[in-house]
Amino acid sequence: MFVQRRVYPDLDGDTFLGNGVVGPPVTNEALDMLAQAGGNLASWSGPGLFSETAPFTLDAQIEDHIGEWLERCLARGLYTTLCFRSGPGRSAFAFHPDESWYPSALYNASIWRDVEKQAAWAEMIAETIRRFGSHHALAGIVPMDEPNGMDLGFSGVWDALAGQIAKVAGEPARRLDLPLIYSPDRWARAEAAPALRQAVGSEAVLSLHHYEPWHYTHQVETDLVRFDHIRMGVQGFEAVDGDWAVLEFGAVRHAPDVHQYLRNRIDRWEGNGANWAAFRWTTGWSPYEESEASMTASADRHLLAVMVHAFNRNTRRPA
To answer: For 65, which DSSP code?
Structure first.
């Protein structure tokens, strides 16, 4: 999985996330490495086509970035999913509530209380389909990455918005045989899947994220919490109805037995017929990786070996 956001020079400088519109850059070498390892999916999470503030116009620079990303993936025989972190009424900093490393003015989670912004978000997904829906590298669109309205006190808003997206964008997507892959509320947790399933229907695909147990996946280096595959199961996933995938999961690389954790999770997902994308693959951009690589699975030879072994089962590539 690759995560990007808009670059703010006053905050980021011109090195940490690069000097482009979106960062960190993903180098050609990083994508080549993924393809050569046998991977066939480069899951992308980044900014949506529309601006975050009214009048919610199409951002041509983001459009160009997404178009270029699709072409780069296709050239390497990689599918990609487009997963939108930001858009009308939601900034990338909504993923970092109560943190102080960025100016508070950049935080925007107003979508949960504004029906105009919700409608604009739904239209953004429809516009994405119009512009990119027939691209051969596009395996699916995740309308919103890790919705969290329920955690902010807006229970049911995301499920209603997901249903709205299904009405606005569902039929164009079906005509192109393009999956819309919806993440449940509460940061894409399985526990919120039943309500989402009711909102989007039985044929939709759900995208679940998994960082459980948190005290294992996010432990500091001095904790030494070991992986117990019996006690640390994936409760709740077997009860999810319909088709689902796990497009984000992982653990810090210093966690004891982390390669066993990754192998266990991959076996669980595939045993349930689910596709997956591990968090995360290197961007290849060293200024970013030097400080943000604690969960870069591809940077650890044992974790990389687990993924390469699983990648050997891949058979599909974009035409």
So the answer is: H
Q: Of 143, 160, 148, nearest to 45 (Cα)?
A: 143
For 140, phi then psi, to 5°, come to 165, 165
Rg over alpha carbons for the chain, rounded to the nearest Å, is: 19
CATH number attached to the domain at 2-311? 3.20.20.80
Span 180-221, pLDDT tens digits: 999 999 999 999 999 999 999 999 999 999 999 999 999 999
Residue 132, C-beta contacts closer than 8 angstroms, at least 6 positions apart: 66, 67, 70, 82, 138
Is residue 92 helix, strand or coil?
A: helix
- Report yes or no: 157 and 89 within 8 Å, Cβ to Cβ: no
138 within 8 A of 180, measured Cβ to Cβ: no
For the record, the structure tokens of 163 come out as: 């249903």
Q: Does the predicted TM-score (pTM) go above 0.70? A: yes
d(CA 67, CA 278): 23
Amino acid at 178: L
One-letter identity of residue 264: N
Structure tokens at 246: 């796990």
- The residues spanned by each domain of the chain are 2-311
